[in-house]
Please model this.
Amino acid sequence: MDKEKVFAVFGNPIKHSLSPVIHAAFADQFSISLKYTAELIESHDFEDSVERFFAAGGCGINVTVPFKSEAFQIAAKASQRANRAGAANTLLSKKNAIECDNTDGAGLVCDLKENLSWVIKSKRILVIGAGGAAQGILEVLLKEDPAYIHIANRTKSKAIDLARQFSDLGSVEGAGIDDIASENYDLVFNATSAGVKQEPLSLPTSLVNEKVCCYDLAYGSAPTEFINWAAERNPMGLTDGLGMLVEQAAESFYLWHGVRPNTKLLLNQLRTNQLS
Ligand code: ATR
Model:
């Protein structure tokens, strides 16, 4: 076996991250020897922590809440999709320079199409939130040709700015959360960090009925408030972010190791608590 390679996911909070389990399972598929840990990073210490990690011989970092924008900013070079998002979830060190990529969008679309068979084309889409998570999925969603995407955010100006950044790719508008009550949507994505931070997310009650499918980009050890709220309205058309988590991890794994793991088996094992 080759020398053990070292990887980590950086975030805050990070305790319940499944990324170490996912990457260990992928590595087993190819007999790759690796160590992958979850690291709690203080908000002022992200850049130094990244530099220390790579200086010590680390091979790659996944980045989660709240560091995706900062990860993009500190990288010397960015992939096309990270550039478009202005946010990164994957860091690599090449020739002593930090490079970044964003596999979130690819992970989401793979989960929607391959695992869930949800159709995006011609759908009326709402994305709630305008932070790093929303930035990472807008390009791929717009490329699937929805009827339109509305971005609704607690801070309205951020939604409007974000919509402007992506307006060359399709019909996309920004609004405040209170402005969306009377719209009819087919798909609603929660891209806020409210669930991860265990904060309340206040949404108009009329937003979701039995015809609206909901997707929470977040995944945690317990259902988020958004998942519980949506389950009361349409329990059949609802999913959390576990599929996206596994698929974006597979895409990061490919960037680091050059091989594509089988995600279906692992997703099934995680859904049925065969791994923890
Ligand atoms: P990340 O980059 O990881 O997505 P972020 O940049 O902090 O994290 O963005 C988090 C998003 O969740 C933002 O859109 C934030 O809204 P604001 O721009 O108004 O801060 C949203 N968010 C976080 N907590 C929220 C809450 N309790 N209710 C509604 N929106 C929330």
